[in-house]
Amino acid sequence: MLTALHHVAVICTDYERSRRFYVETLGLALIREVYREERQSWKADLRIGASQLELFSFPAPAMRPSYPEATGLRHLAFSVDDLDPVIARLVDAGIAVEPIRIDPYTDQRFTFFSDPDGLPLELYEHR
């Protein structure tokens, strides 16, 4: 029986840039970081609530289409208490954020932005 989401894995093209984005800009806590020589790959485990985001680098990873909507993972959504300060922090960091929308089924506010490789990310206000 499934009990929780343990982690989501993301492969990036520029490890240092993506590490800074997820740790410094989004504020995820670094649990551990290792370099796997045999794969020429960095791996960072980042804490987000009770779950983790695994950040990987590989030499010349293939790009996955995000737009138009492609089969597979659509986006990652992060829960926030208040959208406004998080959006302000992203904008101050030079990150484009879409206009706030209202979920027609829950009446909650949400918006989208992208990570350094164009992976769609969502902020979902949970009040």
UniProtKB/TrEMBL annotation:
<keyword id="KW-0479">Metal-binding</keyword>
<dbReference type="InterPro" id="IPR037478">
    <property type="entry name" value="YwkD-like_dom"/>
</dbReference>
<protein>
    <submittedName>
        <fullName>VOC family protein</fullName>
    </submittedName>
</protein>
<dbReference type="InterPro" id="IPR004360">
    <property type="entry name" value="Glyas_Fos-R_dOase_dom"/>
</dbReference>
<feature type="domain" description="VOC">
    <location>
        <begin position="4"/>
        <end position="126"/>
    </location>
</feature>
<dbReference type="InterPro" id="IPR037523">
    <property type="entry name" value="VOC_core"/>
</dbReference>
<dbReference type="InterPro" id="IPR029068">
    <property type="entry name" value="Glyas_Bleomycin-R_OHBP_Dase"/>
</dbReference>
<dbReference type="GO" id="GO:0046872">
    <property type="term" value="F:metal ion binding"/>
</dbReference>
<dbReference type="Pfam" id="PF00903">
    <property type="entry name" value="Glyoxalase"/>
</dbReference>
<dbReference type="InterPro" id="IPR051332">
    <property type="entry name" value="Fosfomycin_Res_Enzymes"/>
</dbReference>
